[in-house]
Q: What sequence folds into this?
């Protein structure tokens, strides 16, 4: 089984904290870009032979496309790939696009999952984030959504300096009113090249506060677990049977084809490919991607980096497939087990949940120098 990721590199505004690849001045070449991306899809279809179990439209802002524009991608996918009948087909949506006309069209096109960039229900924070929507757009959209059977996921951001615990509780209370099945909760980070980074560097914004971020993380975890959500990855929570198939497959090392500027692909074995993160260059180029073959050591490191972030951990089967532990790694693992940071469970090594926030640092202790 494999997945397809379509990266729509357009946004209406630039959010304060965002370092994804997109352009806000795309109207002049919008049609040309979408045609080029479909050409890429048709040219690269032979890279994936397995049935497709997930399709994910991300970005950027895929929900700003018209239903006809989105439909053209789905037509091309259905004609070029073997799409499983129960495939998860997700559209990333900004709340301002949750209008009846779109919802009808997305449902008819075959989407069965919407991932909504709610972020917060506090309008002052939305203004600070430079988001294009307001809390009322989210509420109206979620009201409309009750007429449809989409599986609904929401994104939220915590650890924003002026955000209070009451703000987070108000947002999480949406779950009591609406049938939200999945939550992705991300700590605000200060990435280079963002407006946030510039503001912090020039003293216009305070530094992010680690203690506040930890407190918010714990609050979200607690609030969601009391509402019946399973914390199955550091940043992801799901109601039973509602884990994200697409992202889950990234963590399991399955193959996916990423299309569009800035998209990444993986063949499920050792080859990673990535497209240029520049819209003008993407339109001009002849070659679709650059690629690298992962060394065995890189595969080992990735296994721990992704696996320890998830509830199922790193399976013994995948460890064995990479030749098993070396002596020094085995020693480090035993130390981490003695410290109650890692435990053996369900045929895999899992990080104890109270250490999930330190997952990246702990997995690095098991890295190979390469
Ligand atoms: S809408 Fe999403 S992708 Fe676009 S700038 Fe905002 S956070 Fe980034």
A:
């Amino acid at each position: 089984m494999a997945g397809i990721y379509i990266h729509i590199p357009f946004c209406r505004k630039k959010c304060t904290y965002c370092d994804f690849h997109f352009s806000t001045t795309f109207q002049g070449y919008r049609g040309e870009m979408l045609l080029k991306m479909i050409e890429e899809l048709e040219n690269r279809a032979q890279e994936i032979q397995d049935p497709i179990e997930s399709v994910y439209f991300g970005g950027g802002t895929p929900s700003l496309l018209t239903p006809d524009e989105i439909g053209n991608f789905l037509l091309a996918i259905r004609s070029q790939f073997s799409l499983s009948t129960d495939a998860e087909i997700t559209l990333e949506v900004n709340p301002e696009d949750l209008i009846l006309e779109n919802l009808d069209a997305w449902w008819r096109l075959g989407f069965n999952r919407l991932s909504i960039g709610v972020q917060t229900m506090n309008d002052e924070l939305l203004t600070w984030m430079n988001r294009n929507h307001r809390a009322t757009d989210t509420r109206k959209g979620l009201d409309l959504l009750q007429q449809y059977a989409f599986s609904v996921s929401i994104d939220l951001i915590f650890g924003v300096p002026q955000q209070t615990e009451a703000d987070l509780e108000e947002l999480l209370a949406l779950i009591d009113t609406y049938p939200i099945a999945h939550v992705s909760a991300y700590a605000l980070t200060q990435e280079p090249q963002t407006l946030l980074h510039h503001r912090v560097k020039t003293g216009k914004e305070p530094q992010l506060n680690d203690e506040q971020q930890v407190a918010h993380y714990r609050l979200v975890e607690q609030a969601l677990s009391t509402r019946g959500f399973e914390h199955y990855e550091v940043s992801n929570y799901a109601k039973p049977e509602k884990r994200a198939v697409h992202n889950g497959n990234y963590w399991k090392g399955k193959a996916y084809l990423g299309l569009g500027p800035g998209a990444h692909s993986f063949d499920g074995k050792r080859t990673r490919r990535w497209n240029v993160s520049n819209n003008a260059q993407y339109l001009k180029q002849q070659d679709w991607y650059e690629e690298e073959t992962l060394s065995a050591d890189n595969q080992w490191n990735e296994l721990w980096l992704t696996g320890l972030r998830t509830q199922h951990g790193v399976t013994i089967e995948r460890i064995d497939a990479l030749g098993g532990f070396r002596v020094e790694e085995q020693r480090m693992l035993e130390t981490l087990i003695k410290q109650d940071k890692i435990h053996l469970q369900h045929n895999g090594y899992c990080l104890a949940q109270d250490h999930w926030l330190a997952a990246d640092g702990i997995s690095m202790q098991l890295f190979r120098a390469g």
The pocket of iron/sulfur cluster is lined by residues 11, 14-15, 18, 20, 22, 59-61, 94, 117 (CB under 6 Å). The first helix runs from residue 30 to 44. The chain has a mean pLDDT of 96.
